[in-house]
Amino acid sequence: MNSKMRHALLLLALFGTLVATAAPAPRTVREPADSMHTEYLENLDKMVHLWYVRQNVDSTVLAETFDYDSAVITPDCPDSVYMKRLAKLNTLIELPFNSIVRNYISVYTQRKRAQVSVMLGLTEYYFPIFEEILDSYQLPVELRILPVIESALNPRAVSRVGATGLWQFMYGTGRRYNLQIDSYVDERRDPIAATHAAARYLRDLYEMYGDWTLVIAAYNCGPGNVNKAIRRAGGKRDYWDIYYFLPRETRGYVPAFIAANYAMNYAAEHRIAPVQLTLPRTTDTIVVNGKMHLQQVAEVLNVPLQQLRDLNPQYKHDLLPSSSGNIIRLPFEHVGAFIDRENEIRSYKDSVFLSPQRIREPLMHKEVAFATPGNGNAIRYKVRQGDVLGSIASRYKVTVQQLKAWNGISGHMIRVGQTLLIYSGKSHS
User: Fold this and answer.
1) In this structure, are residues 148 and 104 in contact, taking their beta carbons and an 8 Å threshold?
2) Does 3.10.350.10 match the CATH number of domain 283-360?
3) In the beta sheet, which residues pair with residue 382?
4) Model confidence pLDDT, tens digit, residues 376-420
């Protein structure tokens, strides 16, 4: 080989090295395949299949949507398609693609198509609320996806550790961000109040980290765990650099966020259509001073009581308490009638719905009278996949407190296959 040829080959090798350096391969983060799925998938099933969703989905559509055998499952797309679609999303938050993100995209678009259909239907009601509030705080609107991951858009969702509502606030965090939580009201379940609180919390986290991916991780596991991961990673402040130092659950949280953004934007490309829910598309809020019962509103205005409950999930016992400034959300077409007839509504059967005795008496006392262990009408119920105490209690028209007392349960944990005693003859399975 002459010197000119050697020189040319040397230049070619050097050029190849420079090209490789200038265009690095896409960043990938790998984790054992079984590490992401179990807890996340079970949680998604629990949230979506709770009584709240079942009550708001047309039963015929639901049956069709949840028929896995007849559903047309779109084959996985090439990675290049996922990457191109994610790149097209106009987002302030970086949405990188890697093997873990791809796995979560498959969860949403392949394995859990039915749940995604339900959530797509719910987005038509909840996303405009989230977007308006997030924009008012100058936050990225793509953060609207967080409640999809946290609660599957169920305002009554309660985690095994007590996190509550669409944004899954713990009691302490909710109170710290001025959410009202007492015997009658839990604003963690209020879509508007909770979203304002979440926006303030997210804004505070961003001031701490200056990186939205770290903010999302901290929202899941708390800033203490993120700070610990940063220290263990030698001060690195990139999510993918601290990935393996984060709690196991949080490792999947950011990939799930990216995948949920993909699924909510590209559901149609995977032949996933939204389930039509009975929640009204257009609503408005009215400030109410003084006590009022949702059933008074329902009977005077001829609005389904369940619809009022779904629009106002923050009221635990259907009662707006005596404090001033209570907010009620109504279907838009009933707002005018409510304003015109507010005094009539308040006085309607007030001795029944607003009597001091009715308000002060714990509901548990009445229920125990017809459903105590002493009456001998016990039902043996075996816990199934996706069951939580709240859904079982609703099904049999008893309280969670009763279920816990009858079965010696101190917390909220139940396990699949566990047998529960239920002293009620009213089953709605």
Assistant:
1) no
2) yes
3) 419
4) 457 888 888 778 887 888 788 788 878 877 777 766 778 888 888
